[in-house]
Amino acid sequence: MTNGPLNGLVVLDVATLFAGPLAATILGDFGAEVIKVEHPRRPDPARTHGPAKDGHGLWWKMLGRNKKAVTADLGTPEGAALLRRLAAEADVLIENFRPGTLERWGLSPESLHEDNPGLVIARVTGFGQFGPYAGRPGFGTLAESMSGFAAITGEPDGPPTLPPFGLADGISALTCVNAVTIALLHRQTSGRGQVIDLAIIEPLLTVLGAQPSAYDQLGYLQPRTGNRSVNNAPRGTYRTRDGRWVALSTSAQSIAERVMLLVGHPEVIEEPWFASGSGRAEHADELDTCLTPWIAARDLSEVMSEFEKAQAAIAPVYEISDVFADPQFQALDSITTVDDPDLGRLRMQNLLFRLSETPGSIRWTGLAHGASNDEVYQGRLGLPAKEIDELREKGII
Predict the structure, then answer these.
(1) Is the link from the previous residue into 234 a cis peptide, with omega within 30 of 0?
(2) Cα end-to-end span (Å), the chain
(3) Residue 227 carries which DSSP code?
(4) What is the C-alpha to C-alpha distance for residues 360 and 371, in angstroms, rounded to an integer?
């Protein structure tokens, strides 16, 4: 029995790597029946990304959770026909092929909507479905570069810095879930599905804040400032006496005042420039001169305790091992334990949020390539076992 508020929703995950598949994972976490469709000889590369144990990709165990795994060579008429039949009964299809690929296979949105007018089709690509770059291969790294993110990340005298994980893909996945939800809400009143055109270069651009408007109105280009902020100070990472690191933020004026009182420098609060975040950012060196020695003279436990007493915002800089041990993460069950048929008890990220009335669940971890072929093609499409065997012998599935 599928649990969650999306119980009964059928999602076809025809995407690879991270943005589209992660969006499908989130939908599956909250009850959708997700059918992952992969090429029979070229599985989703995410299966072999990152660390593995005993030949089992650990990233895939999370990314593939709550998904049925089937195979189909969509570039063949028989494989395309299988997807078309699945799409005729589905609610959502998520794909990330280069623009024109589905059309070349006879699987254009128009043709899919002929069979199923209510189908929501999310097309997740690097650059969108039109424009001069539409046909280029696109990955999150390119979005992190072209959006302006890398240009403002890193030390002032260092190179632009890319994140060491799929930041643009992750933000695009969350955006895709929102887009799918909006389209499904529209379908409730109209009865019609629609096509979502999501370019990975855009969601990250959106979360960069006022940079486009600041350039438009002021010609301002935000510089690289390391861990400092151009919007407020003090802000950054600071080392404690016992060699640990803490991160500090003073986005709110009241927090900035509490910090300076705590470290014994109330006089700076009276400075005219201290009254605004941008003013404090211009005097970051001066503020760090007050703050850094105070933190460096104390162990992490004392720093945390004193900041908590002062109701000032600070956090230790964690490695993932620290996340496992932290009582707040433990209370939230942010890293939960699941049973995996290959690895036994396996720990991974839990669901993104908790719903009081309709919680989701992790029903199973990432399945083997093509593990659900018989279940889906026979159980959902009604294909006889002999036909499934013939498709398998031909390399269609």
Answers:
(1) yes
(2) 27
(3) T
(4) 23
Farthest CA pair distance, the chain: 84
Q: Are 183 and 194 in contact (CB under 8 A)?
A: yes
Which of 76, 68, 1, 65 minimizes the C-alpha distance to 41? 76
Structure tokens at 270: 């009276």
| One pLDDT digit (tens) per residue for the chain, 397 residues | 457 999 999 999 999 999 999 999 999 999 999 999 999 999 999 999 999 999 999 999 999 999 999 999 999 999 999 999 999 999 999 999 999 999 999 999 999 999 999 999 999 999 999 999 999 988 999 999 999 999 999 999 999 999 999 999 999 999 999 999 999 999 999 999 999 999 999 999 999 989 999 999 999 999 999 999 999 999 999 999 999 999 999 999 999 999 999 999 999 999 999 999 999 999 999 999 999 999 999 999 999 999 999 999 999 999 999 999 999 999 999 999 999 999 999 999 999 999 999 999 999 999 999 999 999 999 999 999 999 999 999 999 9
Residues 47 and 365: beta-carbon distance below 8 Å: no
**Helix (H, G, I), strand (E, B), or coil: what is residue 34?**
strand
Are 96 and 123 a contacting pair, CB within 8 Å? yes
Q: Which residue has the tokens 């909006």?
A: 182
Structure tokens at 210: 């006022």
Mark whether 169 is an active-site residue.
yes
* Nearest residue to 52 via CA among 343, 277, 267, 327: 343
Q: Identify whether the C-beta of residue 181 lies closer than 8 Å to the C-beta of residue 214.
A: no
Contacts of 117 (CB under 8 A, 6+ apart): 191, 192, 193
How far CA 160 is from CA of 150, 206, 332, in Å, comes to 5, 19, 35
Tell me how many degrees the CA angle 87-90-91 measures, rounded to the nearest 5. 125
Per-residue CA distances from 153 to 211, 224, 315 (Å): 14, 6, 21
pTM recorded for the entire structure? 0.94
Asked whether the beta carbons of 366 and 29 are under 8 A apart, the reply is: no
> Residue for token digits 């879930």?
177
DSSP per residue, 210-223: THHHHHHHH---PP
User: How far is Cα 189 from Cα 170, in angstroms, rounded to an integer?
Assistant: 30
R_g over Cα of the chain: 25
Q: Catalytic: which of 157, 169, 333, 339?
A: 169
**Amino acid at residue number 389:** D
